[in-house]
Amino acid sequence: MATIYDVSVMAGVSLATVSRVVNNNAKVSEKTRKKVLAAMEALDYRPNAIARSLASSRSNSVGVLVSQLDGPYHGPMMSMIESVLRDAGKHVIFAAGRSDEERERASVSFLQDRGCDALVLDIEAVSDDYLVELAKGQTPIVLINRYVEPIEDRCIYLDNEQGGYLATEHLIKLGHRSIACISGPLYKLDARQRLAGHKRALAEAGLQFDPRLCVEGNFDQRSGREGVNRLLEQKRPFTALVCANDRMASGAIAGCMAQGLSVPADLSVMGYDDFPVPEYITPKLSSVSNPIHEMGKMAANWVLQHVYQLEGAPLARRFEPVLKAKESTGMNR
Amino acid sequence: MATIYDVSVMAGVSLATVSRVVNNNAKVSEKTRKKVLAAMEALDYRPNAIARSLASSRSNSVGVLVSQLDGPYHGPMMSMIESVLRDAGKHVIFAAGRSDEERERASVSFLQDRGCDALVLDIEAVSDDYLVELAKGQTPIVLINRYVEPIEDRCIYLDNEQGGYLATEHLIKLGHRSIACISGPLYKLDARQRLAGHKRALAEAGLQFDPRLCVEGNFDQRSGREGVNRLLEQKRPFTALVCANDRMASGAIAGCMAQGLSVPADLSVMGYDDFPVPEYITPKLSSVSNPIHEMGKMAANWVLQHVYQLEGAPLARRFEPVLKAKESTGMNR
DNA sequence: CTGTTAGCGCATTCAA
DNA sequence: TTGAATGCGCTAACAG
C-alpha cells in the first residue's frame, strides 16, 4: 500500500503538500497540485483512515447502536441513517446492544474507542442517568426513541402516549365500550406510555379502566396469543382489544381464530407500528404508524448539522403517530 | 482521556509494561501487574483503538458488506455474524452496497481503509473477476451467497439449483403436470440457479418446460402479483406455480385471490426462503428453507479460524435447502 | 521480567 | 505557497 510518503517522493514535493491536496484545505499552486494528483493516481494512493483519525482525532464516521440488527423495526432505521450519512461522505459503524445493559455500555465504549465523531443510540437497557452522563462527555450523542428530559434536545422520539390514545380512541369511536388491552413489557418506557394513552382515551370517554382486562406482554407474537387466551379465560366480556405492537396483535388474532372467534366480527383488534406484512393476509391489521424511517433520517441530519456543521433540512425531534384504520377493527354491534 | 503514558507514570513503570498488561501477551510479574491495573482503574484508562490499530496493523474488527441493511434476508445474517464475532472479542463494521457496483466497490475500499482484518461480502453487483482480484489482496475475504469457482474456498452458499429442484419436485409429487413459474431477475446468479433446478425437476419427470409459463420477476411482492396476472391472461392452464422467493409468492397469492382463485384448491403456490410471517396468515406458504443464519455463523467462524487462528466449530461451505411443505400447495385434482 | 527506542501514516504547527 | 519538525497513542523489536 502506497503511503503519503511515497506520493511525496514521486511528486518531488514535501509530505505536507501531499496532505494539503488530499484534504484540499490550503492553498496549493495548480502546478504542484497536478503533480501530486498524478503521483497519487500512479501509485493508486489511498489515505489510511486509521492514521488520519489518529492524527486529526476525527474519523468521519458515526456510531449507531441499536438493540438488534434484525427485525422490521431497526432495519429501515439503520438503512435510512446509513443512506443520509453516506451521501454526505460520512461513514457508519453499527453495533448491537441486545437490550442488555452491560452490552449496551460495552458497545458505546467500543464505538467511542473506534473514534466515532458522534453516536446515535436506540437502546433501552441503560438508565437515564447514564445517558445524561454520557451526553456530557466528548462524543456528541443523539437518542432515538427515547425521551430523557434533561437532554431532550438530543432526543428524537415518537409520541407514544398519543399513539396509545389514538388506538383506543379509534375503538371507542367504533362504539366499543369494553376494551381489553395487551401492553408491552412495563419496564419499557414506550410500553408504559402507550398504556397511559390507552387509559387517557378511556377516561375521556367516561369509561372505567379495568385492570383485569389488561395483561402484560413482551412484544413478541407468542405473548399476544397467550395474552388473548388469558383474557378470554376470565369470561369478562370485551368487544375490542388493543395491543401495544403489531406482533402481539398478530398472535392475538391467531389466538382468536383458534378459539373460533372472528376478527373483527366478534372482536376488533388494534396493533401498533404499522409494519409491512404479506399482501394476502386477512384481515389487514389496523394500527398506528411508527415513522421509524423519518426518525432515522432526522438523527442523521442532526449529526450532520451539529457535529459536521453541514446545513440541511430542518430538524424535528418529536413525531406524531397516525392512525391506520384497516380491516381488523369494526363497529361494535 | 487518559493515555497509556499517564498510566505508566502513575504506576511507576514503563510504557511498554503497561502495554503488556493491557494485551496480556507477555510475562509480567504479578506485583507490577497489580500496580498497573490499579492505575488503569484509577484513571479509567481505555486503550485507544485507533492508535492500537495503527501501531499493530490489526484492528480486531471485521467488515461486513451487504446489499441492504433491512429486510428479512440480511437482518438475521448480520445479527448472527455480529453475535459470533462479538463473543470472540472481535468487532463488526457494517456497510451497505445497495446492489450498485460503484457503491459496492467504494464500500469495500471503505472497510479496507478502516483497517478491517477481514471482509465478509454478500454482494451481487461486482463481477467475479473483481472478487478474484480482491481475494489476492492483503485483506482476506469471505463471500456469502455467491459461488465464484476460482476462489471457491472463500464461498459460503446455498445450493440454489437444488432448492429450485426441490420446490418443483414437491409439486410434481403432488400430481401437478402443468407448472408455471415466476423467476427472479435473471441477471442474478441465484435466480438463474433456482430456475435451472426447476427445469431439471421438470425434465426428470418427463415434463416439457414451457417458456410461456415462465415469467421473470424482480423478487418484490408486486412483481409476483403482476407475474401471476400475466400468466393467467395467457389462458394456458396450469395448476401450480413456483416462485423464486416468498415475497413474490405472497404477491402471487394476493393476485390469485383478487381473481377469485383459491390457493391451494385452484392453484398450488410455492415460495422460496421460508421467511417468518404473522401467525394468522392463511394459507401458510410452502417454501424452501434458506439457512441464512447458518451461513452468517459459518462466515464468522471462517474468519475466526483463518484470520484470528481461533479453533472452533467445523466449517461448512455449501448448504442444502430443505423443503418446507405447508398449506399453499396441495394435490392436483 | 522490564525499559528504551523506533516507527505506524498522517495532520498540523511554525518557519521560510 | 511550501517544507521541516513534531506528535497523535500505541505496539514491537531489542537490550538489559
From TrEMBL, chains A, B:
Keywords on record: DNA-binding, Transcription, Transcription regulation
Database matches in InterPro entries: HTH_LacI (IPR000843), Lambda_DNA-bd_dom_sf (IPR010982), Peripla_BP/Lac1_sug-bd_dom (IPR001761), Peripla_BP_I (IPR028082)
Leader peptide range in chain numbering: none
Residue ranges constituting the HTH lacI-type domain according to the UniProt record: 2-56
Pfam families, per database record: LacI, Peripla_BP_1
Source domain of life: Bacteria
GO terms of molecular function: DNA-binding transcription factor activity; transcription cis-regulatory region binding
PROSITE patterns cross-referenced by the UniProt entry: HTH_LACI_2 (PS50932)
SMART domains the UniProt entry points to: HTH_LACI
Protein's recorded name: Transcriptional regulator, LacI family
Organism encoding this protein: Ferrimonas marina
